[in-house]
Fold:
Amino acid sequence: MNNELSNPDIPVPSELQSAVTITSLDKIYNWGRRSSIWPMVFGLACCAIEMICTAASRFDIARFGMEVFRATPRQADLMIVSGTVTKKMVPQIVRLFNQMPEPKYVMAMGACASGGGPFKEGYNVVSGIDKFVPVDVYVPGCPPTPQALLHGLIKLQEKIDSQSLKSVRWYGQETSEAVPVPVLGPDLFDPRQHALLAQQAGQVQENTESVEE
Structure:
């Protein structure tokens, strides 16, 4: 721990190195967060089986302090979207994301969660969860191996290490807005695209009226 947190610009006498570490607030804050990420118990399809394997004894996700899978988004830091994202599930995913407290992160595990995968052309599959919630790390594969998931978690730790208390959004003066929950009807409607859809509907109506005349 001393090597991770110590500031090399400020030397510490050798006789005190076992008891004294000079570091910064950002480093100690990020070290505590990166070493205690709590993922949410959340799986959609076959990638979730690989996620479960990662938590078993062979791969031992506890080495990274991430073994505490939480059954509620209120206590989770990380959402691992593992599996095919259908239009029926998107509203539930966004709702769970909004219920997670800051700081929170999202990992797209597998080809389906990242871009639709082999089912991308399906009428009921969305082309990636990043169209609805911000994604921090993408893990490729169909399905990714447990080693690939661990690599993605290490990349997330590196991202956390690079963050600063001065620039992170959850300590800013502006309030974090919740992501609008999509509405599932005849098709999936994203409230953020309301203006665009209204404009296109108006153009269709104008073209129809001009043809009738």
Q: What stands out?
A: The chain has a mean pLDDT of 86. The beta strands are 78-82, 105-109, 137-139, 183-184, 188-189. DSSP finds seven helices and five strands in the chain.
